[in-house]
């Protein structure tokens, strides 16, 4: 230190007259073992580097530079642009015998057909979709999505392009079972599935695994049909994942999303950079009289 006064005072050889400074010195001495530290006077001209650092700290303020701000909101500006996004209208299939029972219905061998109510739901959503004047119709090639897509094809005049990338999640050994049956027969697996999106039923697919597929599916549609209106007839799990992906939410968000049979969920994807926006979720107004 280049202050003889402070050196002598902190060493205890000179008295500190100011009461507040005496208390501060006592706190400093109590903060460490006195035998581990000594104070020495060094002439200022021999300690110029330390003097320069002290002056910089006192005069220059904090040396910490704040991290540059990263823009988070691009959508507000994009909505004012003239670029036309690809519009994806995701339609969940109509009701099957498993739907009201809340049974697992994935890609297993059951492949149920629509009930009479499910066919009625498909007709209603087909009328709503026709008003949107879609240009492309894609569907998962399972029976329930085929039948729903067929109703839309008849109302729009579009041909159906089937693509397995839009399959429902695979539930493996749980397919066709109720939640109660899975909980009773596979209690540990059931709890693991409830706890984490990375957990997959035996022979099945986790939400994390399916999410990779769904993101690829969204990118595929945006690349193949830039600026067009595309209908995708798919499944509840896929729609939940699509909403989670588009909003940038953590995968656990799928535990808080549900799509009703023959509901419509709308997504925009801008071709120039892949910016995405969730425009609607679980629309069911077309069922109202």
UniProtKB/TrEMBL annotation:
Q: What is this protein called?
A: Unannotated protein
- Which GO MF term does the entry hold, naming one? nucleic acid binding
From the record, what ranges are coiled-coil?
A: none
Q: Which residues form the RNase H type-1 domain?
A: 2-57
| SUPFAM superfamilies, A to Z | Phosphoglycerate mutase-like (SSF53254), Ribonuclease H-like (SSF53098)
Alphabetized InterPro entries for the sequence:
His_Pase_superF_clade-1, His_PPase_superfam, PGM_Phosphatase, RNaseH-like_sf, RNaseH_domain, RNaseH_sf
Gene Ontology cellular component annotations, sorted alphabetically: cytoplasm
UniProt cross-references to PANTHER family, sorted A to Z: BROAD-SPECIFICITY PHOSPHATASE YOR283W-RELATED, HISTIDINE PHOSPHATASE FAMILY PROTEIN-RELATED
Which species expresses this protein natively? freshwater metagenome
């Amino acid at each position: 230190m280049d202050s003889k006064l402070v050196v002598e005072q902190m060493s205890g050889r000179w008295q500190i007259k100011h009461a507040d400074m005496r208390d501060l010195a006592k706190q400093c001495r109590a903060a460490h073992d006195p035998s581990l530290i000594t104070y020495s006077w060094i002439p200022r001209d021999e300690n110029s580097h330390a003097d320069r650092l002290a002056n910089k700290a006192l005069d220059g303020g904090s040396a910490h530079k704040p991290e540059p701000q990263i823009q988070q909101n691009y959508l507000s500006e994009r909505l004012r642009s003239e670029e036309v996004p690809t519009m994806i209208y995701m339609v969940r299939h109509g009701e099957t015998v498993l739907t009201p029972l809340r049974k697992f219905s994935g890609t297993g061998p059951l492949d149920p057909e629509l009930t009479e109510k499910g066919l009625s739901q498909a007709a209603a959503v087909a009328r709503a979709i026709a008003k949107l004047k879609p240009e492309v119709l894609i569907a998962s090639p399972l029976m329930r999505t085929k039948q729903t897509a067929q109703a839309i094809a008849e109302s729009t005049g579009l041909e159906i392009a089937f693509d397995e990338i839009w399959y429902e999640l695979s539930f493996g050994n749980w397919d066709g079972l109720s939640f109660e049956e899975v909980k009773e027969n596979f209690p540990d697996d059931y709890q693991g599935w409830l706890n984490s999106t990375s957990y997959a039923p035996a022979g099945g697919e986790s939400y994390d695994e399916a999410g990779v597929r769904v993101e690829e599916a969204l990118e595929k549609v945006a690349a193949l049909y830039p600026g067009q209106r595309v209908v995708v007839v798919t499944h509840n799990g896929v729609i939940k994942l699509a909403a989670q992906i588009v909003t940038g939410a953590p995968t656990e968000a799928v535990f808080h999303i549900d799509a009703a049979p023959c509901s419509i969920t709308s997504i925009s994807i801008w071709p120039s950079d892949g910016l995405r926006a969730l425009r609607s979720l679980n629309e069911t107004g077309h069922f109202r009289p």
